[in-house]
Design a protein that fits this description.
alpha+beta; three-stranded antiparallel beta sheet; about 55 residues; about 20% helix
């Protein structure tokens, strides 16, 4: 499952993206927040998600 949200950190609000995955009773997640300008695209790196999924396998 993937979702986007607006989060507040140190009094400043900004976008965040999260990928949540589960295998059996194990749950993992990866998150991303933009660096620099918010207008640029950003995502949870697929290499991070793939590595976490491999750990659950």
């Amino acid at each position: 499952m993937a979702l986007g949200a607006v989060v507040e950190r140190n009094g400043a609000k900004g976008p965040a993206k999260v990928v949540v995955f589960r295998k059996g009773s194990s749950v993992g997640y990866g998150s991303a927040v933009p660096e620099g300008r918010v207008g640029k695209g950003f995502a949870v790196p697929s290499a991070v998600v793939d590595a976490q999924l491999a750990k659950l396998s």
